[in-house]
Design a protein that fits this description.
3-stranded antiparallel sheet; 5-stranded mixed β-barrel; de novo design (two linked rop proteins); OB fold (Dihydrolipoamide Acetyltransferase, E2P); 253 residues; alpha+beta; 2 domains; 38% helix
């Protein structure tokens, strides 16, 4: 079957970098083909009409031409620039986190995943319209893990299968779930989990966003939830993420 020489794609711009003397290489997450890379010819020239449509975090419609190397962007139209994100360092950091997480879990031109694409678009929209950035990020993490097949087991002990009680538990990154105190081994790399942390994680896991957004954990519980998610994500990715440090630095200013 012949491959079309060009095609239209709905995409979110994940990032870009200089390419050659005047071009730019953009990384995109598309609804139709998942993650891919494309060259924007002349994007670094002051008269470029496409460059403004291809800033990070922008929701676009593109015409892409096939080439021996990366695809080539022949037309670009903005659906939503999510302008407030670029006007606020905290929002920029949170958007960068969503994008980095997706990039680290995805490969170029793997099978398209419409659920993940919609999750990214919706999450950027929530950041741009004033939703709680912490909540947007935690909900995104949980839903992304679900879509990728890494849904953590939070209802029963992953060793003995008993229903988790409302008391302090443990979480295993390697086994992807909660372990009850009776099964926890002092020689295993486990993280303690308080009942409140577990309660909110379950809430994010089972709820639509409109229900999840009603959650209002106290500052201590928010920190515990965020740390636990970073523990699990670091295990899955085999190294830490870069954007959380930027978010912390911005928060301290």
């Amino acid at each position: 079957m012949n491959t079309p020489r060009s095609f239209r794609a709905e995409a979110i711009v994940l990032n870009h970098q200089d390419w050659g003397e005047a071009d730019r290489l953009v990384t995109l997450y598309t609804r139709q083909r998942g993650k891919l890379r494309a060259v924007v010819k002349g994007a670094r020239k002051t008269r470029s009409r496409k460059a403004g449509h291809l800033q990070p975090f922008t929701h676009v419609i593109l015409q892409l031409a096939t080439a021996r190397g990366p695809f080539i962007v022949t037309q670009a139209d903005t659906l939503n620039a999510f302008a407030p994100i670029r006007e606020d360092l905290t929002l920029t950091g949170q958007a960068a986190y969503l994008v980095e997480l997706l990039q680290r879990f995805s490969y170029d031109e793997e099978e398209a995943n419409d659920m993940i694409f919609r999750l990214l678009v919706d999450s950027l929209g929530r950041l741009a319209t004033g939703e709680d950035p912490w909540l947007v990020a935690r909900y995104y993490e949980m839903r992304l893990l679900d879509s990728l097949g890494f849904r953590p087991q939070l209802q029963t002990c992953i060793h003995c299968g008993t229903l988790i009680k409302p008391e302090n538990q443990f979480f295993s990154g390697s086994e992807g779930g909660v372990i009850c105190p009776d099964c926890a081994s002092p020689h295993t790399a486990l993280r303690p989990v308080t009942p409140d942390t577990l309660k909110y994680l379950r809430h994010f896991q089972r709820s639509a966003y409109q229900d999840a957004r009603r959650a209002d954990p106290d500052p201590k519980t928010r920190t515990e939830i965020e740390n636990l998610m970073q523990f699990y994500l670091t295990y899955l990715l085999e190294r830490g993420l870069n954007s959380p440090r930027f978010i912390r630095e911005v928060g301290q200013k």
